[in-house]
Amino acid sequence: MKILFIRHGQTKLNAEGRWLGSTDAPLSEAGKNFLINKKSIIEKYKPVQKLYCSPLKRCLETADIYFNDMTKEVLNDLRERSFGDFEGKNHDELKDNPYYKEFFRTNWKSNVPNGETSENFFSRTEKAYLYIIEDMKKNNMDYTSVVSHGGVIMSIFSIFDTQKLGFYEYLLQNGCGYYTEIDDKNNINIIEKF
Fold it and tell me: Superkingdom of this entry's organism (predicted)?
């Protein structure tokens, strides 16, 4: 089986280097233009049999641009982590915050004040991935796509990728992705990064 994982296009908050989790921000005009210009690259990875998507606007809009309004299954568990007190702030505003330092040191495994717990985040993203695999098997699909968030993709890959790279090594630029093959043990093998 193959899965195309795509991170949503850029928002205004992304462009400003601000933490964007549960805030339902739309794509910026620059973000939309980037996706439109990159769409020809995405064409070589099509057609997929099914599209799974986060419920947040930035992902839904990305999916509509890349996949021409293809019907999608929206999975709440593919949404980004709520960053609580970090939400909307940038690195300079947070660099002296002890919770922020611990968050980086532990590869997101520490909790954020007023945010989603790390245990819940990693558990639900793993659950979303395994649901997609089971849905593919049940419906005899061998190629699908997931449009989600940087943190969600990093979380899934940190658990299932066979290369076992560092957590932050899986971070994708906005609008970019991984073309992958899934083995019979649900492990992810990266074929190509784009």
Answer: Bacteria
